[in-house]
Amino acid sequence: PIQHKSRCLSATVLSSHAPIDHKQPSLILPLSSAQAKPIRSIAAPMVAASDYPFRCLCRQYGVDLTYTQMLLAASVCRDATFRKNHLDLFECQPYVRDKQNTNKSTQGCLKDLDPSSPLLELPTEWEPFRQGPLIVQLAGHDVSKVLKAADLILEEFPGIAGFDLNCGCPQGIARKGNYGAFLMESDNGETVCNILTALRNHLPSHVAVSAKIRLPLEEDQLKPRIQSLMATGIDFLAVHGRTLKENKTAVRASHSTRIREAVQIAQAERPNFPMVANGGIEIFPDVERVRLETGTAAIMSSEGLLETPQLFRNDVSQLNPRQRLEEQFQIARDYLHWTALYPPFPGVLGNVAGPFNIAKGHLFKFLHPYLQDHRDVMLRLAAHDINRLVDAQRIVDELYARYQDCSDEDLHELESSKVSSSWYRRHWGSIPAQRKANAPVLSVEDRKKALQKRIEKLRDARKAKAAASLP
């Protein structure tokens, strides 16, 4: 296989290394003074995607604060197996490989990986990224169960930075379970505020309590909703600049002006209260733009980070196609390295192949444009019998190798080099129609010939264009 040296991309880091604007509030978690520092960049909680390896990767590429995926409080309270399969909080305790390897799906993920593989060695420069402040996100509508879940987690992991209440999930399962954005809209936040007040009164002062909300469906509800949340005593508040109905194919631009309005309302109640803006963070320039437009202390990203974890430290929009390709493949390799060291927990994807399916999901997002160029590779990565890290490494290397004979000029003309090919923009309606899913799978030689024909066609088109421009 092609050998690649893991590294951190060199770029200007925004996060905690950037100068602080003292005109805006700072988000500093109530940890010990040795750990306390301003939080500027945040990885949002994402189901089946906020695994420990991905959190380490995010810290490697400039994220200050990470969240766990959303955890249902009732499940945390009821089921020790649920806790074992979900609580990968290794920021707060040492990782013990023998203990984790009791899970068969984790063993399968690492099957046939050479014990002497460099992937099983932690690079010295990566050591600082193993730990960092971590927020556990809970969801639920029962005050007693949320408190009990927090107690159970804090007892086992006393080093966590805080607990967040999910008040923004727009998925149908949240409607069924009466949590997330549906709970907030059902009684205009009364139950949410009761839970947050109870959490803040119950937990130690060094453990932060926060909430992540969406904009209310009715515009005139923003002020009373923010005021009620301020009265609960929470330490900070994240606002997603979209409503419950602005989701997936109905997604619209994030409403920065409404987030700024929320900031002003909150700070009228509690001066210098730290707020976090979420939504519409695709590339590096969005980070500073949204921070200035909203006046928030920190910026949170979710889907943007899933495709480009480096977005807080590097403007990928300024890279040429070759540079972008190299960065995305390096990120994929770095993630596989973290996964070999600390395989994901099964989580919501189950015990059969959960750990590897989580890893697969990340690879599909990191390499989305290139997998669209080579759908045969995409289909192979998606196959059920691809369930080991060695398989994933081999497929990533093969996909990378297919671009090595492309000149920079030819690479520029491929679909993967267009902005519209990104995974982040998949619901924007600007992505060209995809090939039919039942297209025949070609042999390696036929694929090479097809790619060569495409390159020759692009060259002919450029020559014709150049000839037409001659006087």
Overall description:
- This protein has 471 residues and is α/β, with parallel strands linked by helices.
- 43% of the residues lie in helices and 8% in strands.
- It has an eight-stranded parallel β-barrel, surrounded by six helices.
- Helix 1 packs across helix 14 and helix 14 packs antiparallel against helix 15.
- The chain starts with 40 loop residues before the first strand and ends with a helix.
Taken in chain order, the helices and strands follow as: EHEEHHHHEHEHHHEHEHEHEHHHHHHHH
Strand order of the largest sheet: 1-2-4-5-6-7-8-9
Q: Helix segment count?
A: 20
Shape: globular
The count of strands amounts to 9
Task: Work out the helicity level.
Answer: 40-55%
Low-confidence stretches: 1-22, 430-442
The Rg value, from CA coordinates, equals: 23 Å
Structural class: alpha/beta
For the biggest sheet, the summary is: 8 strands, parallel, barrel
Mean pLDDT: 86
Please give the alpha-carbon distance between the first and last residues. 50 Å
Topology:
Layout: E1 41-43, H1 52-60, E2 65-67, E3 71-72, H2 73-78, H3 80-86, H4 97-100, H5 104-109, E4 134-139, H6 143-156, E5 162-167, H7 172-177, H8 180-186, H9 190-202, E6 208-214, H10 222-230, E7 236-240, H11 256-269, E8 275-278, H12 284-294, E9 298-301, H13 303-307, H14 321-341, H15 354-366, H16 368-373, H17 375-382, H18 389-401, H19 408-413, H20 444-468
Parallel strand pairs: 1-2, 1-9, 2-4, 3-4, 4-5, 5-6, 6-7, 7-8, 8-9
